């Protein structure tokens, strides 16, 4: 029966990574739990919601090997409040877990047999592609906010992730694309390292899976990735993440991105971002933040379309020297794009009133955002 001692700090870290995976809404009690087991002087903790599975390993002083499942939230909260630097976990009969604290306190939690806990998928040992964690984190951050929340758009409810290699090159390009039908974000990076034998892949990752991937990328300098027809596999020194893929075909995003730019102008990113946030305050509908932009030589005027509870307009300088024109768009879409960009100066371009608005920046190589315009007919 399980009996071990582990450092509180490492145990809390492991449980905090497992907790977001645990399915809190399910009627299946077993996956409200984490699987805890000891093997080879290591404590292993697993969590799953049947779509995403997570495993983490921490060092521990193992007195007896064993396994059980225990409520993830209760275990985390009890250990978090214990002031001792080391935590003792001891299995009792009928899968109860005892947590003694010195001579004066102890806690016991009812657990469940580990046999019914979903099995962790065997992890591929070949074809793993090493990718810097920072790259993965940046790519997810630049695409996650334009994933569709519309259940009927199943293929758009995740992020398209592609890893590919040009025929004449050994360098791999990693690309992420997302769209909700009203906007599209594409971010890509070509890796410096050469990979001769790696197989490229193209998969659609669940939104929740992409968020967990970002967290893992934020905590590790390097991730190892590979995929099969149904799952994306991610590995670090101590953690493993398995994400069920979305079935279906992602729309051909390359056909949507305009090849020409008939009209374009540049502006200061931080200045326009601040103005859009201020103007949005007087717009009543939180999702329909309509803004009209009037562009004339060296000047852009931004004003709210919704004037039910107030109105606002701001003028600022812009790099434009052509004929005056007007356009309208959802301010929230542009705000979210500008917030993830690094460029001081951003270029906005489009072909006509019905074509997508393209947002790019010199210091955001590999990133392009498309926003569908709004109609000015009823304005």
How would the blueprint of this fold be written?
Layout: E1 3-7, H1 8-18, E2 33-39, E3 42-48, E4 52-59, E5 61-64, E6 67-71, H2 72-81, E7 86-91, E8 96-101, E9 105-112, E10 129-132, H3 133-141, E11 158-165, E12 171-179, E13 183-194, E14 201-206, H4 207-219, E15 222-227, E16 231-235, E17 239-244, E18 263-268, H5 269-280, E19 290-296, E20 299-304, E21 313-317, E22 325-330, H6 331-339, E23 345-350, E24 357-361, E25 367-371
Antiparallel strand pairs: 1-5, 1-7, 2-3, 2-6, 3-4, 4-17, 6-9, 7-8, 8-9, 10-15, 11-12, 11-14, 12-13, 13-25, 15-16, 16-17, 18-23, 19-20, 19-22, 20-21, 23-24, 24-25
Helix pairs in contact: 1-2, 3-4, 5-6
Intertermini distance = 72 Å
Structural class: alpha+beta
Shape, principal axes of CA atoms: elongated
CATH architectural grouping of the largest domain: Roll
Helix content: 10-25%
Beta percentage is: 35-45%
As for the number of domains, it is 3
Q: At the fourth CATH level, what is the homologous superfamily of the largest domain?
A: DNA Polymerase III, subunit A, domain 2
CATH domain topology of the largest domain: DNA Polymerase III, Chain A, domain 2
Calculate Rg over CA atoms. Answer: 25 Å
Model regions low in confidence, pLDDT < 50 over at least 5 residues: none
Biggest sheet strand order reads: 5-1-7-8-9-6-2-3-4-17-16-15-10
- The level 1 CATH classification of the largest domain is Alpha Beta
Report the count of strand segments.
Answer: 25
**Sheet of most strands:** 13 strands, antiparallel
Q: What is the residue-mean pLDDT, rounded to a whole number?
A: 91
């Amino acid at each position: 029966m399980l009996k071990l001692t582990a450092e509180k700090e490492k145990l809390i870290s492991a449980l905090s990574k497992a907790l977001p995976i645990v399915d809190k809404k399910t009627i299946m009690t077993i996956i409200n739990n984490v699987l805890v087991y000891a093997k080879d002087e290591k404590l292993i903790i697993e969590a799953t919601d049947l779509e995403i599975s997570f495993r983490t390993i921490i060092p521990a002083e193992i007195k007896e090997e064993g396994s059980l499942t225990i409520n993830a939230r209760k275990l985390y909260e009890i250990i978090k409040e214990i002031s001792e630097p080391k935590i003792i976990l001891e299995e009792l009969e009928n899968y109860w877990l005892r947590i003694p604290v010195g001579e004066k306190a102890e806690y016991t939690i009812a657990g469940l047999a580990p046999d019914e806990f979903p099995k962790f998928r065997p992890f591929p040992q070949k074809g793993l592609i090493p990718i810097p964690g920072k790259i993965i984190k940046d790519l997810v951050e630049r695409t996650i906010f334009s994933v569709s929340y519309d259940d009927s758009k199943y293929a758009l409810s995740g992020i398209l992730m592609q890893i590919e290699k040009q025929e004449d090159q050994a360098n791999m390009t990693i690309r992420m694309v997302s769209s909700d039908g009203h906007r599209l974000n594409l971010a890509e990076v070509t890796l410096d390292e050469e990979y001769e034998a790696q197989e490229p892949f193209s998969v659609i990752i669940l939104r929740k899976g992409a968020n967990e991937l970002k967290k893992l990328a934020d905590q590790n300098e390097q991730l190892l990735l590979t995929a099969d027809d149904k799952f994306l596999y991610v590995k670090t020194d101590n953690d493993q993440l398995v994400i069920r893929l979305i079935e279906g075909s992602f729309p051909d995003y390359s056909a949507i991105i305009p090849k020409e730019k008939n009209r374009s102008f540049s502006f200061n990113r931080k200045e326009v971002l601040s103005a859009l946030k201020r103007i949005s305050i007087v717009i009543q509908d939180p999702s329909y933040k309509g803004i009209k932009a009037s562009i004339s030589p060296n000047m852009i005027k931004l004003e709210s379309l919704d004037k039910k509870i107030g109105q606002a307009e701001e003028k600022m300088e812009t790099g434009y020297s052509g004929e005056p024109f007007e356009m309208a768009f959802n301010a929230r879409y542009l705000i979210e794009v500008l917030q993830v960009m690094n460029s001081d100066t951003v270029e906005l371009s489009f072909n006509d009133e019905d074509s997508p608005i393209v947002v790019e920046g010199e210091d955001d190589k590999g990133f392009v955002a498309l926003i569908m315009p709004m109609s000015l007919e009823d304005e």
